[in-house]
Specification:
Structural class: mainly alpha
Radius of gyration: 18 Å
Largest sheet: none
Shape: elongated
Strand content: under 5%
Order of helices and strands: HH
Number of helices: 2
Number of strands: 0
C-alpha cells in the first residue's frame, strides 16, 4: 500500500504501471528513494503501530481467553 502511495505521490501516472511481476506492478526500474527516506518511513510506521500494539497488549492481559494466545 505504501508503495502504491509513493508511486502516485512522485508524479507517476497509470500509464507507467507495467505487469512485470505480481505484486510489483508499481515498481518501474528507476523507482526508489534514498536510504534516509527509507529509514524515516520505517520509523514512522513503527511509531504509528506502537499505540495499537500497546492497546492490544492491554486487551490480552485483561482478557485471558484461549484464542488470544494464537494472535
Amino acid at each position: 500500500l505504501l508503495c502504491v502511495i509513493a508511486f502516485f505521490a512522485t508524479g507517476r501516472g497509470t500509464d507507467e504501471i507495467k505487469p512485470q511481476g505480481l505484486p510489483l506492478f508499481f515498481r518501474p526500474q528507476d523507482f526508489g528513494f534514498n536510504l534516509w527516506v527509507t529509514y524515516a518511513v520505517w520509523i514512522g510506521v513503527v511509531l504509528a503501530l506502537y499505540p495499537l500494539c500497546k492497546r492490544y497488549d492491554r486487551f490480552k492481559t485483561n482478557n485471558p481467553r484461549w484464542w488470544t494466545s494464537y494472535l
